[in-house]
What we know:
Layout: E1 2-3, H1 6-19, E2 22-24, H2 42-46, H3 49-57, H4 63-68, H5 71-84, H6 91-102, H7 112-120, H8 124-135, E3 137-141, H9 152-157, E4 165-166, E5 169-170, H10 172-176, H11 178-187, H12 198-215, E6 220-224, H13 235-251, E7 255-259, E8 261-262, E9 275-276, H14 282-290, E10 296-300, H15 306-315, E11 319-321, H16 331-345, H17 361-386, E12 391-392, H18 393-413
Parallel strand pairs: 2-3, 3-4, 5-6, 6-7, 7-10, 10-11
Antiparallel strand pairs: 1-12, 8-9
Amino acid sequence: MKIRDRKGLGKALDRALATVEVSDIHTHLYSPCFGDLLAWGVDEMLTYHYLIAEFFRATELPYEKYWAMTKTQQADAIWKALFVDRTPISESCRGVLTALERLGLDPGKRDLAGYRKWYAKQSAEKHIDRVFELAGVKNCVMTNDPFDDAERPVWLKGAKLDPRFIPALRIDPVLLSWEKSFPRLAEWGYQVTRDLSARTLDEVRRFFREWAVKTKGLYVGVSLPPTFEAPEQSDTGTILEKAVLPVCEELGLPLAMMIGVKRRVNPQLRMAGDGVGLARIEPVEYLCAKFPKNRFMLTMLQRENQHAACVATRKFRNLHLFGCWWFVNNPSLIDEITRERLELLGTGFTAQHSDARVLDQVLYKWAHSRKVIGAALLDKYADLLDTGWTIEDSELKRDVDALFGGEFHAFLTRRL
Length: 416
């Protein structure tokens, strides 16, 4: 059916957004076989590192006293400071309330004890079913680190994955901290030494290859600082160009670069203490041009990097731009970034990923993102109608499917 006016356009777009099945291409969620690594529940939401950072700005509690508390005590303290003593207007606080509401709980009751009782009656498996259905998520991509002592044994024993949880191999320790990681590789039987000799690089390639095959990862991912450079005469530069990228090309795996995080700018906050910095786009351009047979994925953490990331993506068809990561995963910035990308890239990108560390977070992250992305799309389609162009219902569905995961999966197999 052809759409010729904004009213009809809005209704058709709402239908497409309501029915799209999301492929969430970057999360920190885990299949149930990983046990306690799968975080879910109200206390996990309240003690998420976003809210921890906000909490310490609203209290005089010493850091060490907070970290000495049990998780329940920490959640109680955060609930009181951010939801009782203050209005929970931040995106992180609002997200908790949206998740509760989506699950059929009443945020207006402000009944933390009641929410806990409800969660205590749920099983992880059934909760996954419920959350994915409510969020409209058909699958999610995990972040799988062989150096994680809680995760590694599950893989070694033969992880039996829920098929909705798709692996992705994380390589930060080897790529960014070779001096600390090579002794562990040696312990595991790899013939490596501190110096990156030909023999050592061959063994690093073997490590990446074996773990990529073991996990069946969809891509290889790394979180990079704003100071990331390429080419670079360093351990990172050598391992990247002589080990990581050759194995990625061999196995047909994209390298997902998440650029811009400054680790532990406030160490007392632990995981909540990371910051953001302005990065250069030139290293991305160099890698895409130097390795045209490799596929690259890109998301950047600082707002000021978003325009350059769009332009670089226009120039390289082996580069895929995805999501609004971490500090730019806020409605005002998602709106701005989505509009910029639509204007420069059409529908040739992935509009969002949840980056969720707690299962329940996908409820709010996709609900909020659908609304903002939908508003941007509505305006862009209306601009087309103003030219006399007509739009079909099926075309709206095609475009929404592309932006919510379809374009990424096409990128994985598209001929370069």
